[in-house]
Amino acid sequence: MFTTNNPAATTASQDQLIWKMLFDRQTALLHRRAVPVFWENLARLGYRREAIPDIRELSATVFEETGWQLAPVGRPFEPAAFFALLAERKFPVVTRIRPMYAFDFSPEPDLFHDLFGHVPMLLDEGLANFLHELGQAYVALPEGSPAREQLWALYFFTAEFGMVQSDGKPHLYGAGLLSSAGEIHHCVNELTPRPAFDLATVLNTPVTGARYQNQYFMLPAWEQLTECVEELAGMLATSR
User: Rounded to whole angstroms, how far apart are CA atoms 202 and 130?
Assistant: First the structure.
């Protein structure tokens, strides 16, 4: 039997296997569940089940398409640093992939979550502008401002765990849903609440990062994501 004494080569091979298994699992589960633009952008970026995309090459493609760049990071970091990158049209990508024991649900963002869940949606101009506006709004607020927590909640229940009505049916667009089999099964369960998106409610809903969400907010239309930025700007202006 062939063996290798190169730990790096073994790790890279294991990472590729996990990527392939996750890719196959998610593309099957997301059939007719993900927003159409997700599939369009997955194809535009040339994603393949056989190979993890090269972050540097992918960043160049994303920049050419959108003006955004990908910023490789070793691990997730605090919201302040995260939003500062969004304000500069940079999206952090964690460079490690989840271990097998966290296959169906990773409590923290990982390589698959970021590359498969977030990056294809960055090619949507409306969502990309929404993220940029969130980043700018966050860094403009003073440290310790309660409004910063509210912006984190808005990001969390849209870009991470958002749903939208598309062609009269509910579709997933949040990266935490697109990249997690366990989260999808929980989300589509008929007992899981999926209330209509309301900005004031979302801003004051506690964020839960270490387990499945208690509820998922449903945008009635994709355009509301852009409209809520203007509503948010008015709310922040009156709170200062």
Answer: 15
Which residues, other chains included, contact 50 with Cβ-Cβ below 8 Å and sequence gap of 6+?
16, 20
Catalytic residue chosen out of the listed positions 106, 118, 132, 133: 118
The alpha-helical segments, DSSP class H, found in 51-117 are 55-66, 79-87, 111-112
Instruction: Identify the band that residue 235 occupies on the pLDDT scale cut at 50, 70 and 90.
Output: confident
Of the residues 59, 106, 132, 179, only one is catalytic, namely: 179
Q: What is the average per-residue pLDDT within 91-115?
A: 91
Known catalytic residue: 57? no
**Set 106, 132, 160, 180: catalytic member:** 160
**Sign, CA torsion 23/26/32/34:** negative
Q: Which is the catalytic residue, given 113, 132, 171, 186?
A: 113
Question: Catalytic site residue 231?
Answer: no
Confirm whether 160 is a catalytic residue.
Answer: yes
Q: How far is CA 62 from CA 12, 23, 132, in A?
A: 24, 20, 15
For the record, the structure tokens of 66 come out as 């959108």
Is pLDDT at 155 greater than 90 in this prediction?
yes
Integer Rg of the chain from CA: 18
pLDDT tens digits for 174-204?
Answer: 999 999 999 999 999 999 999 999 999 999 9
What pLDDT score was predicted for residue 193? 95
Q: Is 132 annotated in the active site?
A: no
CB 220 within 8 A of CB 196: yes
